[in-house]
Amino acid sequence: MAFSGKYQLESQEGFEAFMKAIGLPDDLIEKGKDIKSTSEIEQNGDNFKVTVTTGAKVLVNSFTVGQEAELETLTGEKVKSVVTKEGNKLKVTLKGIESVTELVNANTLVNTLTLGNLTYKRVSKRV
Questions:
Q1: What is the C-alpha separation between 88 and 39, in angstroms, rounded?
Q2: Which CATH architecture has domain 5-126?
Q3: Rounded to the nearest 5°, which phi and psi values hold at 35?
Q4: How is the chain split into domains, by residue range?
Q5: Strands (E), 73-107
Q6: In terms of Cα–Cα distance, which of 93, 7, 104 is closest to 54?
Q7: Which residues contact 41 (CB under 8 A, 6 or more apart)?
Q8: Predicted confidence (pLDDT) per residue in 19-70, tens digit
Q9: Per residue in 85-113, pLDDT tens?
Q10: Is the pTM of this model over 0.85?
Q11: Nearest by Cα to 15 from 105, 127, 115
């Protein structure tokens, strides 16, 4: 299954506690919790470009599976890391946060971020 497509956030769990733990200011957490972000994924073989638009904030990361890339975190910091692919899952660890993005079926994308015992789960549907 190809990841390419546009996905709209349907539901999320653990947003506020997770964002607080990574140091996002309370005002941004408050603004961001009700915004339905859109993720656009362009996949060409092992090359990916992921654009996440949340209100006025646009986060763009480009990477090749298995190769080191500079990726922007949720807090805007740039970190070098390697994205791996296992079946329908893309995995990466940034600053102690493990991110797993899974294409569970043709129309559902689930992104799970884990930091210690905190989990932030986002479910998006293809639009």
A1: 17
A2: Beta Barrel (2.40)
A3: -80, 130
A4: 5-126
A5: 78-82, 84-86, 89-94, 97-105
A6: 7
A7: 3, 4, 5, 6, 7, 48, 49, 50, 51, 109
A8: 999 988 899 888 888 888 999 999 999 999 999 998 888 999 999 999 999 9
A9: 999 999 999 999 999 999 999 999 999 99
A10: yes
A11: 115
